[in-house]
Amino acid sequence: MELTQSDIGGLYSAIVTPLKEDGTVDVAGLRRLVRHQLDAGASGIVPIGGTGEYPALSRDERKLIVATCVEEAGDKPVIPGVLSTGFHDAVEAGRDFAGAGAAAVMTVTPYYSTGTQDGMRAYFKAYRDAVGLPVMLYQIPRRTTVSASAETVRGMAEDGSIIGMKFSSYDLPEFIDTVRLAGDKIAVLSGEEPLFATHVALGARGGVLASASIYPKIWLRIFALARDGRLTEALAAQSGIDPVIDTIFLETNPGPLKAYMALAGMPVGGVRLPLLPPSAKTRESLEAAVRHAQGIALA
């Protein structure tokens, strides 16, 4: 059965890609990581997005990662990220992931050659037709310098191009407009840890979060509180993880996150160029954040 917007809700873990010491993909580590998410109660897995180092992986590695996640996830949806800059490359990736068993793809707004709002709408319509899988829009303007307006998102939904979106932006008015115009047509998911509880209270059906790689249970607790209208309690619970969030994004994701995971007892290897291990200063902050997390119930 094809995934629909009504199937999407809860926590989707944007997982890192575990690497061995020689830099190759750690398949056994990837299986453990997927199982950690699902055992905690995550609704699905989002591999090889930005957190999964999509640009640093080869085509064959991406297919391997998606196939491994699908096999380990069982009946839980795997929604890999597609961060290709060009339409044909993005279609190729989407078809690869469909062949590997993905339930949908999470495709970034086209960047570098940035189009108009009409161009983005046409892009996603053509993309959905070409790939043959349900599509989630991935909106992260701080990386792409472009975003689809709330009106364009509504148009994409009306076209049948997308069933949901990951909203990674601090623009709250735009988020509110997006939920108002398209929230009954697609599943809007938060992509910002600091705003997650607020986004849920304002209509997000869940989130796609990088820090769920290490702490899925705390985000599930925050989600349940915010969904039930207990925003003050959700924000209080979220404050416990704030020091962790502050540190794992001090440098480009997922460098600090992977270093934090190793310090917290869940080693997943290093990162690929152009990313480097975190600086000494950032590592000190990560070590302090781990000590903080050991004193509260995050896991």
Q: What descriptors fit this protein?
A:
alpha/beta, single chain, TIM Barrel, 3-stranded parallel beta sheet, 47% helix, 299 residues
List the helices and strands and how they pair.
Blueprint: E1 10-14, H1 27-40, E2 44-46, H2 59-73, E3 81-82, H3 87-99, E4 105-108, H4 117-131, E5 135-139, H5 141-144, H6 150-159, E6 164-167, H7 172-182, E7 187-190, H8 196-201, E8 206-209, H9 216-227, H10 231-239, H11 242-248, H12 255-263, H13 280-294
Parallel strand pairs: 1-2, 1-8, 3-4, 4-5, 5-6, 6-7
Helix pairs in contact: 1-2, 3-4, 4-6, 6-7, 9-10, 11-13, 12-13
Description:
The chain is an alpha/beta fold. It has one domain (5-240): TIM Barrel (Alpha-Beta Barrel). The chain contains 13 helices and 8 strands. It has helices at residues 27-40, 59-73, 87-99, 117-131, 141-144, 150-159, 172-182, 196-201, 216-227, 231-239, 242-248, 255-263, 280-294, and strands spanning 10-14, 44-46, 81-82, 105-108, 135-139, 164-167, 187-190, 206-209. The strands form 2 sheets. Strands 3-4-5-6-7 form a 5-stranded parallel beta sheet. It has a 3-stranded parallel beta sheet with strand order 2-1-8. The chain starts with 9 loop residues before the first strand and ends in a 5-residue tail after the last helix. The relative contact order is 0.13. The mean pLDDT is 96.
